[in-house]
Amino acid sequence: YLAATLPVEASVAIAEIGKARTEFTTAMGVLRNAPEASVRIRDELLLADAQWVFFDAALQQLQGGSHNTKPLANVFVASENLLTVMDRVTGLFATAST
Q: Model confidence over 51-95: pLDDT tens digits?
């Protein structure tokens, strides 16, 4: 995201963000449909979906050359929240497979 806001190959960064967006949503579907996905895991994935909405909205606010720091702050906060939830999901899956 940061690279897309700098005057350094922003179009490449935007394309990579698009690829990552597709990969993330596909992976969420795989996790949701995994045989190990308990009710608790699915609940956590719902929380991740909610955080993804905020994160994706911040990513959509890409404005090359803008000096507005609010989208950067939104990306930071939403990505940290999403990471926290996905860390819990990882732990739950690890426990389910043992």
A: 999 888 888 876 555 667 787 888 889 999 999 999 999 999 999
Q: Residues 82, 49: contact at Cβ < 8 Å? A: no
Contact 40, 53 (CB under 8 A): no
Place of tokens 């906060």: 77
Q: Taking the CA atoms of the chain, what radius of gyration do you get in angstroms?
A: 15
Q: What is the DSSP string of 4-19?
A: HHTTS-HHHHHHHHHH
CA 58 from chain centre, in angstroms, equals 11
Rounded to two decimals, the pTM is 0.79
| Two structure tokens written together for 12 | 């490449």
Question: Which of the four pLDDT bands, split at 50, 70 and 90, describes residue 6?
Answer: low
Distance CA 56, CA 41 (A): 22
